[in-house]
Amino acid sequence: MTADDEERYCRLGRRTYRGLVFCPEHSGEELVAVPAAAKEAGGDPEPADPARQRTACWSCGAQAVDATNRTCAACHEPLVPPALAIDFPGGRVEVRQRGTSAELGRGGTYGHVFARHRNVSRWHATVSVDEHGTAWLTPNPGAPNGTFVNGCEIFVRTPITPDDRIRFATDQGPDPGPVSASIRLPQRDVP
User: Fold this and answer.
1) pLDDT tens profile 57-89
2) Which domains does the chain have, with CATH numbers?
3) Strand spans (E) along 21-161
4) What is the pTM (predicted TM-score) of this model?
5) Which of 91, 115, 112, 92 is nearest to 186 (CA)?
6) Nearest-CA neighbor of 179 among 139, 120, 133?
7) Cα→Cα distances 102→11, 55, 89, 99, 176, Å
C-alpha cells in the first residue's frame, strides 16, 4: 500500500479516510494512523478524546454552550483552532491550516495590524506552518527595515516557537516597529 492509499483516522468524526492528511468534514483536523482498537473492532475504538471535541474555546477557554457550535459564544473565535496565531499590538495574525501561509505588512489581509507603523513594508515577511506543524517566518528581501526574531535580524526562512518574539523594523526612536505579544500553535496543543 502506498502512502497515497494509506487509511487514516479522524478522532473527531471517529471514521477513516483513504489517501488524505486532513479530515474533509472537520476543518484543520489532522488525520492519524488508524488506532488498533478501530482495526480490531471494525468500528469506533475508545470514546473520542474530550480535548478533540472542541468543547472549550482554544482562544479564551470558555466552554461551548452547544457542542454543535462552530464559534465560541464568548469571544466569537472559531472553535477549531488555527495552526498558528500571533498577537501583535494592532491585532491577531492567523494561519488557519497547516501547509498554508500569510503575508505580513501594511498591505493585504493583515494590513490593519501594521497600518500605523510606517517603517513596516507593505509586504514585510511571510509566516507559514508546514505539514508537520512547524511555524516559519520568512523575511521579504525587499523590506529595507529588517525582520527580527528575539532581537536578531533574520535573512532566511527561520522556525518560530511560542517562546520567540517577532519584531519588524527598528526598536529605537519615535516609531519603533511592532513586536509580537504572543505566538501560539493551538493545533499542537491538542493531542
Assistant:
1) 888 888 877 777 888 889 998 888 999 999 999
2) 3-49 (no CATH), 84-189 (2.60.200.20)
3) 32-33, 84-88, 91-95, 100-104, 125-129, 135-139, 147-149, 152-153, 158-160
4) 0.69
5) 92
6) 120
7) 28, 28, 18, 11, 23
